[in-house]
Design a protein that fits this description.
16 helices, coiled coil, 60% helix, two-stranded antiparallel sheet, ubiquitin protein ligase activity, 398 residues, 4 domains, binds zinc ion, three-stranded antiparallel sheet, single chain, CTLH/CRA
């Protein structure tokens, strides 16, 4: 019972390890691209200067051009130093996470105090992850700082997601999301994400909404037509949109003008960025809770008859934890336990199930306690019928 299944524990920790590695990969690729582009452009400029006629550029102009190139290289150096700092942090973060997970191998039993401490730290980081995802960034940062778990929190990534989502949902602006798409174009292309097209389409729709038809046509030529290989029918429909006003009731165009598209875009942005960074769409807290709930779910929990529910069962609390259990399968019970609806306690030989004349069953302890208060009478909590305790019949389970 006390044995720790390290493989099972590691299986759910995959995103925890992968997130900083994915960020590192992306950061390295971006600085590599930046260096290649700048160096080749500076090299090409030098070649042009060297191959020109000796007096094509005056000494002063030559001096100015060279100073410009030197400044450009200095800026590149500064940017690469910043990138190097960020990469070093990500490497450090990956190491710290690997060290944390490798501790699991050293534990011999779940009862060990060191393992309990490890689990408490994990609970804190799972809560930090949950709060970051729900937008409570400051609270998450405070908990991470108090528990010394900053290296376990992907704060900057979630802060970017939240800020961009807010910009889309509340300010109705695609600026930040489009900038992110430009920085990650090749990765988006690899996963065949149409996010950038959807954002461009939204900017087009806003121009159409504002009556800027000429501007919208020019925008479509520049930003929508490059997508014609995969999005031609939608581009055609977008052009038709220009013939309608924002108050149209014509279904496809009404849906395009609908402001709910902004909420959809915010959701699309989140799912794409999570996908690129290998983050699960659900918080780890939900996965861990669902593991426990799946062991408790019985047919009674999902019965339409509310009276069938058990007040001590978290799955039966359909407004809270039960929601997480909605899509889980029923648990497989080899042995059944009978639980008294009144006390929530298990019924067995010493506390046997008693059947009232109306057919409902409760534990002897519950009925005896009730009879002691009601002068030998018991009241069925489901039907409010009153019987004498002596009328209850003991049941035998074979
Ligand atoms: Zn239940």
């Amino acid at each position: 019972m006390d044995r720790i299944n390290v493989d099972h524990m590691l299986a759910i920790e995959e995103p925890f390890m992968k997130a900083p590695l994915e960020q590192l990969k992306r950061a390295v690729r971006q600085s590599q691209k930046l260096a290649e582009r700048e160096v080749s452009q500076v090299g090409a400029a030098l070649d042009t200067m060297a191959s020109g006629a000796p007096d094509a550029l005056g000494a002063e102009e030559m001096d100015r051009a060279l100073s410009g190139l030197i400044d450009r290289l200095k800026t590149l150096k500064r940017k690469l130093e910043e990138a190097q700092h960020e990469e070093a942090q990500l490497i450090q973060r990956s190491k710290q996470r690997a060290t944390d997970l490798s501790e699991l191998d050293g534990f011999e039993s779940a009862a060990q105090p060191e393992f309990q401490r490890w689990c408490r730290a994990r609970l804190d980081r799972v809560l930090v992850d949950y709060m970051l995802r729900s937008g409570s960034v400051e609270t998450a940062q405070r908990l991470a700082a108090n528990s010394q778990l900053e290296h376990f929190a992907d704060t900057s990534l979630f802060a970017l997601v939240m800020a961009t989502e807010r910009e889309l949902r509340e300010q109705h602006s695609c600026r930040g999301a489009l900038q992110w798409c430009a920085e990650n174009r090749s990765a988006l292309h690899r996963v065949q994400s149409p996010l950038e097209f959807e954002l461009r389409l939204q900017e087009f729709i806003e121009m159409a909404r504002g009556g800027n038809t000429l501007g919208a046509i020019a925008y479509a030529k520049r930003h929508l037509t490059p997508w014609s290989d995969t999005q031609l029918p939608r581009i055609e429909r977008a052009m038709m949109l220009l013939a309608f006003s924002a108050t149209t009731q014509c279904p496809p165009y009404k849906a395009m003008f609908d402001e709910a598209r902004w909420v959809q875009l915010a959701g699309d942005f989140r799912s794409v960025i999570f996908r690129l960074f290998n983050l699960p769409s659900q918080p780890l807290l939900h996965l861990l809770l669902q593991t426990g709930l799946s062991a408790l779910k019985t047919p009674a929990c999902i019965s339409g008859d509310v009276a069938e529910r058990n007040r001590d069962c978290p799955v039966c609390q359909t407004e809270t934890l039960g929601r997480l259990a909605q899509d889980l399968p029923l648990s497989h019970h080899v042995h059944s336990n009978l639980v008294c609806r009144i006390t929530g306690e298990r019924m067995h030989e010493d506390n046997p199930p008693m059947r009232l004349p109306n057919g409902y069953v409760y534990s002897l302890d519950a009925l005896a306690a009730m009879a002691a208060k009601l002068g030998g009478k018991v009241k069925c909590p489901r039907t409010a019928q009153v019987f004498g305790l002596a009328e209850a019949k003991k049941l035998f389970i074979s």
